[in-house]
Fold these 2 entries.
Entry 1:
Amino acid sequence: MATATTLPYRRVYVWELPVRVFHWVNAISIVLLAVTGFLIGWPQTIWMSDEPYQQYWFGWVRFIHFAAGYIFFFNLLFRVYWSFVGNEYARWSSYIPHRKEQFLNAWETLKVDILQTKEKGKISVGHNYLAALTYLGLFFVMLFQVVTGFGLYAGMSDAWLPWLFAWIVPLMGGDAWVRQWHHIAMWAFVVFTVIHVYLSFYHDVVEGRGTISAIVGGWKFERDDEFDK
Ligand code: HEM
Ligand code: HEM
């Protein structure tokens, strides 16, 4: 068996600092939004030794939700900007399928990673196209959460930003419907996160080229005979 030192590995700088910062700000704010959002939808009676008027825990839950909502929104806007100025792996064209190879790569990844009907596929340096497609889908769910979230918030705020989205409430049939859909969309993030973290570990272990450390430090390790640009 060949040892690592004899293989022609090389380092490729894949995820630039802005992409990595976006990733972790996004991941942390979504976890906060999902946990606080879940509590808003299913409020609990806790700290019962205090009178209700002496408690503010639910106020904090809502405050964290709204503050994380703003951070999540501006972080997302920044990533859209970076998809026009960032490197080839971060560009919009890597996410929006418009070439035949992208569809073929997505199909092959599905067979290798999920259906397990093929043992090995081509290795992509950036995202594989199946992953890229899920990020694109998630992007639309994020937009939906921003529009419905700020739409709901407009009713409790005088700030101009939420009011940009106030039109969604009458369009969707009132606050109750908007909250219902906003709640349902939360589950898309929960399902995505479970599969995403599993597949990140899977690729890291099976391919041994630093998938997870790349989203921390930026670098991946590639063998010239293995990767597909
Ligand atoms: C990943 C993104 C988000 C997730 C997972 C999420 C999740 C949730 C959930 C589950 C609820 C409770 C709905 C219910 O059952 O009644 C909720 C409520 C709410 N969310 Fe979000 N949310 C997100 C983003 C946002 C954003 C960007 C804003 C904008 C400020 C926002 C503002 C609100 C508001 C105003 C409520 C209603 C709070 C209340 O009536 O007390 N959310 N969210
Ligand atoms: C322990 C937690 C996590 C780990 C280890 C992790 C790991 C990774 C890795 C390795 C990539 C690059 C993968 C690739 O090449 O396709 C990535 C990208 C991505 N992850 Fe995560 N992730 C985590 C949590 C999350 C969470 C909670 C979310 C949101 C719900 C998320 C959303 C994304 C998105 C949107 C991208 C694409 C980023 C971009 O292209 O700008 N991740 N993640």
Note: The mean pLDDT is 91.
Entry 2:
Amino acid sequence: MQFIDTHTHLYLEDFDTDRNEMIKRAVARGINRFLLPNIDQSSVDPMLGLCKAYPDYCFPMLGLHPTSVKDDWQMQLDHFEKLLQESPTTFVAIGEIGLDFYWDKSFSTQQIKALRIQFDWAKKLQLPVAIHTRDAFPEMLAEIKEAQDGNLKGVLHCFTGSLEEAQKAIDLGFYLGIGGVLTYKKSDLPEIVKQVPPERLILETDAPFLPPVPYRGKRNESAFLFETAVKLAATLEMDLDTLAEITTKNAIELFNLPQS
Ligand SMILES: [Zn+2]
């Protein structure tokens, strides 16, 4: 049985003291591929360093996170565009990109501009996008709809929208990233995942953030994908082997990964 953690920030300093052991713990539970979303210019080197150390396990994305869209956003995008031109096959996705109106709304116009530019890269390079959305679902769905010309594909990472939003995203060709939130008592997500095709679900941790039950309040790590997978299998009344097979296949297809 194997799983792919499709969204995990294993290069962050939260893991500096035990990164190798942490990766081993995940691999021991069958979680043996890690897709690393970038945050901003400062995270690129640590991320690529980790991918160099674990070439069969770690796969990088490139993009500017919406909460990092500040005054220098254009400079950061220029830098990323150059990196993409220099090594177009290094990255498995443009991510993570998106809209976040929860933390700070003062750069919302710039966030939208940055998103559109990065959507264009993804379409041109035929890469999927990993999307972060917080307090901005209607705006995000409108942006995807506008950009969708048959060439845009991707995932709404850590999906926490409504059933209607899930269905709209799926109709627009997107996948839903299911993380630890699925295990939270008050979450609507279990009711939502039952009503969407399993072929559109992929698993993620968003480590070190959003740990599943029973690790809430602790640092999240990729090994904890297992708890989310068990919960998803139970919710869908599916055995864990089948769930592993389906979600792994979905991730391989979306991110164009090697078969194993
Ligand atoms: Zn993330």
Note: The chain is about 40% helix and 15% strand.
